[in-house]
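User: I'm writing a short report section on ligand binding and want a predicted complex to refer to. Could you take this sequence and fructose -6-phosphate and write out the structure as tokens? A short remark afterwards would be nice.
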Amino acid sequence: MCGIVGVIGNPQAVDVVTTGLSRLEYRGYDSAGLAVLGPAGAIHTCKAVGKLAALMAKIPGFNATLPTPPTTAIGHTRWATHGAPTEANAHPHVGTCGAHTIAVVHNGIIENYNEYRTTLAKQGATFASETDTEIIPNALAHRMQGVGVSLVQAVQQLTPTFRGHFAFVAMAQGKPDELVGTRRGAPLCVGLAEGASYLVSDPLALAGICSRFVYLEDDDVVHLTPNRLTITDKNGLPTTRPVTTLDLSTEASGKQGFKHFMLKEIHEQPAVCARILQEYTDAQTLLPCLPLLGLNLATVTTINIVACGTANYAGQVGKYAIESLSRIPTNTDIASEFRYRTPPLRPGDLFIAVSQSGETADTLAALEHAKANGQQILVLTNTPTSTMARMADAVINLQAGREIAVASTKAFTAMVLNLILLGLQLGHARGHLSGAQVHGHTTHLRTLPGLIESMLSHTGVLQKVASGLTGSHSALFLGRGMLAPLAYEGALKMKEISYIHAEGYASGEMKHGPIALVEPGLPVINLATSTDGLFEKTLSNLQEVAARRGHIILVTDDAGATQLPLSGKQGLTLVTVPSSPPLLAPIIFAVPLQLLAYLTATEKGTDVDQPRNLAKSVTVE
Ligand code: F6R
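Assistant: Sure. The structure tokens for the complex follow:
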């Protein structure tokens, strides 16, 4: 959450910062701001509430106040934690003590900010915002004034005293040729170019500007001048970190004719599935060949899959797949709960983190806990350069391609498909499935791209259902077996982008309480495949809703539609998907749910790609 861009040594510093921020808006869009060092070394700031567009509108006026284009700048796009989205709370924050004025952009949370605020206030500091961030420039300025140290020394001395996960970049008035940055838990990397250097939350910010990057380790402090990079580690000792070359040329592509990134990404799913199957199944044998060499599967007795939000629902589908295909007992957990209930962990067992971004703070904390307890770490991520990937024993690149829309679609599908392949690979390795059985499954999986494509061109019924939903205050999503997590995911998608209150339940759970919510006209979206042996039970649950005059929207496969009793069809809206073997169902059923949420949201006119209060990468706990 929150995006940081720092530039030094580039006469287009303001442009680079704003372009970078536009690519980091996925990290938050409550406010944006930048600070530059003018020719006389004075700090000038410009901030605006709301999306980057509001800041951009102010930039021409801001530039006009600067005598020459600055070469040093820092910028920030905010996802509010401490303090409302106001201009006063927007970054950069500035703190002064004596001769020292410091500006800071910050991502994450300084948990002990209140202690700092009290102490600094007693020392004469004044605060203009409600943020935790503001203590950083003030503490740095006080340190520099009090003990006569430089900016980089102040950062080195104070960072160990800050609690929490964070990254920040600081610059000092009168020092136009230096930037200092540090990180713990939250991402920050250095971009290197001829005569200029950069500090960014995500290399994507610098696509087309530089291709060489240095990833910082926790508690590293980096000191940048236009031509020099110096890093000290958590013990204050000089260190070097490897330079990684990234090809970002294709990363920043636009909507390609689609109205929203979300719709584009829904339509990319056939290609994503094809890519995963090509990359991770052997062309001859069709056996899965996920890159698991870093793991010792012989010691695995239990698997823990840990993730957040949509990734957690993908993990829940993965549990069904792995347990049924490999017979290895598998637990799933929400990362924020897993970490703090200190579950018993057996060394040698397998911990799987599922994370599109690879940076989610809760998942990262859970991963660190599992690693400290001797678990083998497998990370499924769409960002193979992410912090989680760098901590893993083995990494499965989701192969979904950059996902821009905040509501996840193609990354979910990619997670599910990769977890199914993992189940097959483990099942084969453990001798639970024969080569012929696995071959049968992967042959079916290869039909996925075509099946998804066929669904994407038939959205008429969904459009009608979506129109009906726009007037609803509430909706229920129900499913059984592998489709239970799909019901949770369908409800999450709906509430995220249409702001309609939606709940997902396992169908069998309805009678234990949620059925009290059913009243005439309540939309109840039921997911039912005819191939999992649960179809009749699901139809019974559906009758229970019908008896209370809920409006049933049944999403089922072609074969299921023909099995409906005639009486059961009355008052029901039918959405059909192609019939498929059960293993494919969670992916097939994801598509209409994504489209339903998308169509409802567009009809309501909400901000589909950047829904309110959300951010794509959640790097605070
Ligand atoms: C919902 C959504 C979120 C993320 C969650 C975890 O559409 O995208 O629920 O799934 O914040 O994010 P990652 O996968 O980056 O760890």
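A remark for your report: The pocket of fructose -6-phosphate is lined by residues 308-311, 355-357, 360, 363, 407-408, 492, 496, 618 (CB under 6 Å). The chain has three domains: 3-245, 261-454, 458-604.
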